[in-house]
């Protein structure tokens, strides 16, 4: 009895608070190593933030904001290289370091290796971390261009600035692309799951993890960018070089980059056509024909559907929706589409309504489209509850228009009622 009590008491005293654990202790426990990888996933940015979080759509030609924030200033041209509105360089390199630490330390996890499939589990989790690290590099490349390749080395963050490891140079763009592709290939080969979808019997917390398909999709997108005129033979980059004179961009056009991009895209297309797990999300009408409106609207609402490749379990979609919601429906009405994106949507007959703009900004209207900018018609839009007196600019447009654009007189659907929106 005394020996038993003494043993239990000793075990209690041997406990170490979680905030005092060493790296070795973290990676010998299954729960803490899983938490570490979850933290690496958290560096995937939330694209649904309503204002500053991830700004790319809001500073494009697709939308505009009315709040006096960084997005507003950029759209006015009130910014320069010193503005530092969105410093994602630091953010992604923190994620890269965290992923590298996981890759370098997970192999000997004692608790995981106690399981019969422990080695297989570790192999898959390492591949997830490798994918995430490559993805973060791809995001840096997209925003900043050529980056610093660190590889599997963990550089001491407390090293003095004069340390050669703290003075690494950026690698040329093509080398950055090849490095990301190589890392994606390694991750893909060790990921036994091809794609997580809502039809698979998997744990809910596994949805959104890296998969073979996700590796292939990122490679396809990256190689398309690399083949595009922005990076393939762009003479604007002449003289863009490191301090040692090493060019960071190849300004000679290379047609084989298009072949490489096409081959990567074909891999994803072939999977979509053969697997039945990836394709266009479709909803049918009562007569069996495809409902274009619901098929487009609900692809964003039906979680983990057949059209999703990458998604987040947690996001700020509520803030995004409130920014888009009209004031009449208790929203901010601070984020909306530009007239140019509205003009881009086709008519229900497939014709383009606007073919260009005159020097004074007035649209060049395609007469064959049936588009008019004068008068009103009694019209019931897809998804609307009734016929309404509707401005002709918004009549007989394609289904995607009515799922995307809120216009004067349209319905705003919410949980309690259908509000008619008025200017």
Which descriptors apply to this entry?
423 residues, mainly alpha, Serine Threonine Protein Phosphatase 5, Tetratricopeptide repeat, 3 domains, two-stranded antiparallel sheet, two-stranded antiparallel ribbon, 8 strands, disordered N terminus
TL;DR?
With 423 residues, the chain is mainly alpha-helical. The chain folds into three domains: 46-81 and 280-337, no CATH class; 87-273, Serine Threonine Protein Phosphatase 5, Tetratricopeptide repeat (Alpha Horseshoe); 338-420, no CATH class. The protein contains 14 helices and eight strands.
General description of the model:
The protein contains 14 helices and eight strands. The chain is mainly α and 423 residues long. It has a two-stranded antiparallel ribbon. A two-stranded antiparallel sheet has the order 3-4. A two-stranded antiparallel sheet has the order 5-6. Strand 7 (411-413) and strand 8 form a beta hairpin. Helix 5 (88-105) runs antiparallel to helix 7, helix 8 runs antiparallel to helix 9 and helix 9 (212-227) packs antiparallel against helix 10 (256-275). The radius of gyration is 26 Å and the shape is globular. The termini are far apart. The relative contact order is 0.08.
């Amino acid at each position: 009895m005394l020996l038993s009590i003494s043993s239990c008491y000793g075990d209690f005293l041997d406990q170490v608070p979680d905030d005092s654990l060493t790296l070795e202790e973290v990676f010998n426990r299954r729960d803490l190593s899983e938490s570490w990888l979850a933290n690496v996933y958290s560096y995937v940015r939330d694209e649904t933030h309503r204002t500053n979080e991830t700004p790319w759509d809001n500073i494009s030609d697709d939308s505009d904001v009315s709040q006096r924030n960084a997005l507003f200033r950029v759209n006015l041209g009130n910014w320069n290289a010193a503005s530092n509105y969105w410093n994602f360089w630091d953010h992604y390199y923190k994620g890269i370091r965290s992923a590298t630490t996981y890759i370098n330390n997970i192999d000997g996890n004692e608790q995981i290796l106690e399981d019969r499939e422990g080695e297989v589990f570790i192999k898959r989790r390492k591949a997830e971390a490798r994918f995430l690290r490559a993805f973060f590099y791809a995001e840096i490349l997209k925003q900043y261009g050529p980056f610093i390749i660190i590889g599997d080395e963990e550089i001491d963050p407390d090293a003095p600035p004069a340390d050669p490891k703290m003075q690494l140079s950026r690698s040329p763009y093509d080398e950055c692309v090849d490095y990301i592709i190589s890392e994606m290939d390694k991750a893909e080969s060790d990921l036994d799951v091809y794609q997580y979808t809502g039809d698979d019997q998997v744990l809910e917390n596994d949805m959104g993890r890296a998969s073979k398909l996700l590796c292939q999709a990122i490679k396809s997108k990256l190689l398309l960018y690399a083949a595009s005129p922005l990076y393939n033979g762009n003479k604007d980059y002449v003289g863009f070089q490191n301090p040692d004179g090493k060019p960071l961009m190849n300004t000679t056009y290379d047609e084989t980059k298009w072949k490489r991009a096409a081959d990567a895209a074909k891999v994803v297309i072939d999977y979509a056509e053969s697997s039945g797990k990836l394709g266009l999300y479709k909803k049918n009408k009562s007569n069996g024909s495809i409902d274009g409106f619901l098929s487009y609207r609900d692809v964003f609402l039906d979680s983990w559907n057949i059209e999703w490749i990458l998604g987040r379990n947690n996001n700020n979609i509520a803030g995004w929706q409130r920014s888009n919601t009209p004031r009449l429906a208790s929203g901010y009405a601070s984020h909306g589409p530009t007239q140019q994106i509205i003009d881009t949507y086709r008519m229900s007959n497939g014709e383009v309504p606007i073919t260009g703009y005159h020097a004074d900004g007035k649209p060049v209207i395609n007469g064959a489209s049936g588009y008019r900018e004068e008068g009103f018609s009694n019209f019931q839009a897809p998804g609307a509850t009734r016929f309404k007196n509707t401005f002709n600019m918004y009549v007989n447009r394609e289904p995607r228009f009515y799922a995307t654009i809120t216009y004067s007189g349209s319905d705003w659907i919410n949980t309690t009622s259908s509000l008619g929106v008025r200017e």
